[in-house]
Amino acid sequence: METFLKKTFPWYGWIRGSWFPVQYRKAFTILLLTVLLYVGGGVIVPGFLTLEQILLTLKLAAFIALFGLCQMIVIVAGGGGLDLSVGYTATLTAVLTASIMDGRNAYLGVALLVALVLGLLVGLANGALTSYLKLPPLVVTLAMADILQGIVNAYVAGKAITGRPSPVLVTLAARLTGVFPNILFVLIPVSILAILVFERTKWGQILFGVGANERTAYLCGINVKKVRFLTFAASGVLASLIGLLLLGNMGIAFKDMGSNYVMPSIAAVVVGGVPLAGGGGSYFGVILGSIFLQALTNLLTALGLGDAGKWLGFGIILFAMLSVYAGNRRSR
Q1: Quick one: pLDDT band at residue 33, thresholds 50, 70, 90?
Q2: Which residue has the higher pLDDT, 332 or 313?
Q3: Contact predicate 313/300, CB 8 Å
Q4: Cα end-to-end distance, the chain, whole Å
Q5: CA dist., res. 24 & res. 4, Å (int)
Q6: pLDDT of 229
Q7: Which residue has the higher pLDDT, 81 or 25?
Q8: Are 299 and 101 in contact (CB under 8 A)?
Q9: Residue 28 pLDDT more than 90?
Q10: Residue 32 CA to chain centroid, in angstroms?
């Protein structure tokens, strides 16, 4: 991939090798690939390269990027961190809070409190089992996802899921301001805050330090277990709050509404240049990775390939990007 870009665009290597910040070089690659994808899609599919289509992509990619933040928080701290429970944490939140709000703004505060408590409990459980009992995060969060799915199924067994999101949530997650999706008014400040925390705060330095070298971090006096415990707690809370936004966007709650975001959120992190071993990457790259994956999904859908084509495309892109990043690591 890198070789192709350097041969196709002579200035690519100069930009990546000169003034461009190291943590954003992989993000720049994804940005260029996204532009190429849109240009190619515009040639193949009439109407693909339009402002309306681009804004739709940004709206849908915003949810992937938000779930990607959950993944990045636990991944950068190392230890094989992944959170496979984010989808059903969001789903359970949506199912429970839909009946609480039932289309009224008056109960939005109660719904928000329920979301915070639920997400925190899930995150604390994941963090305790992975950090203090040293169980594999993949196994723990997969088991938690199954537990939450079981709770959702038991809650809705034999009955329809009742309730609707509050008008405020609908406006925030589903409506437009002019042609601009309102969900971006959520993503933009969240992104700025996340980038500042990761890159400009002591907490961000600790996260990257723990992920880069656990032993060194421990010798420097950092409580590695506590740090990783808190990352899962943060991931759970964020996933639960995203469940409210999903509910507002879709208008109703239903089973599995958040599960389809688990794989794309992990893919966005990988494509965005965050090493799965932890210790590096940027959230800006995750956002661009989300946009790239959503644009790819839209193109495959426009070509009539549907879900099968989407998952095949995700798999191919993941293998390609992992191969590129692994090759870069070996060359260093």
Answers
A1: confident
A2: 313
A3: yes
A4: 17
A5: 19
A6: 97
A7: 81
A8: no
A9: no
A10: 20
Task: Convert the pLDDT of each residue in 307-322 to its tens digit.
Answer: 777 777 777 777 776 6
How far apart CA 265 and CA 157 sit, in angstroms, is 29
Q: Read off the pTM.
A: 0.90
pLDDT at 309: 72
Q: What percent of the chain has pLDDT over 70?
A: 89
The four Cα atoms 190, 193, 196, 201 give a dihedral, to 10 degrees, of -130
Q: Residue 39 is encoded by which pair of tokens? A: 């240009």
Burial of 252 (0-12, 13-18, 19+ CB in 10 A): middle
Nearest to 174 by CA among 104, 240, 251, 102: 251
248-251 long-range contacts, CB within 8 A, separation 24+: 248/165, 248/166, 248/168, 248/169, 248/170, 248/171, 248/172, 248/173, 248/174, 249/63, 249/173, 249/174, 249/183, 250/174, 251/164, 251/165, 251/170, 251/174
pLDDT digits (tens, 9 = 90+) for 81-139: 899 999 999 999 999 999 999 999 999 999 999 999 999 999 999 999 999 999 999 99
pLDDT attached to residue 328:
54
Residue 304 structure tokens = 């009539």
Distance, CA of 49 to CA of 40 (rounded, Å): 9
